[in-house]
Amino acid sequence: MVRLVAITAAIRGQGHGRILNAMVEGYAHRLGISILFVNAASDAEGFYAATGWKRFEGHPPRLLEHANNCVPMQKTIIRQGAKSTQAGLGGLCDRRPL
């Protein structure tokens, strides 16, 4: 589980969030995880949407705790022929993008 990952304001917009996002996705892929969940800060929703995350509607996984002022989001990792599992990212509201 990844929680409370942040990119400091001074270096935002330089691709660091996208790199961390790709690293988390790659690691999850190697573990056989096909769906990721995160509580995104409302001001980070645009970043997550731009990197393939979608708003999650419905009943989130138990590990994805409810957090005020956060947007529950999920991302499906495309896998071929492997058994899939789900993982939660961020029980609290992630302040900035991965």
CATH class: Alpha Beta
N-to-C order of helices and strands: HEHEEE
User: What would the principal axes of the Cα set say about the shape?
Assistant: globular
Proportion of beta-strand residues: 25-35%
Q: Which CATH architecture is right?
A: 3-Layer(aba) Sandwich
Largest beta sheet, briefly?
4 strands, mixed
Could you name the key traits of this structure?
globular; alpha+beta; single chain; 98 residues; 4 strands; Aminopeptidase; 2 helices; four-stranded mixed sheet
Structure in a nutshell:
With 98 residues, the protein is an alpha+beta fold. Helix content is 22%, strand content 29%.
3D architecture notes:
- The chain has 98 residues and is an alpha+beta fold.
- It has one domain: Aminopeptidase, CATH 3.40.630.30.
- 22% of the residues lie in helices and 29% in strands.
- It has 2 helices and 4 strands, in the order αβαβββ.
- It has a 4-stranded mixed β-sheet with strand order 2-3-1-4.
- The longest helix has 16 residues.
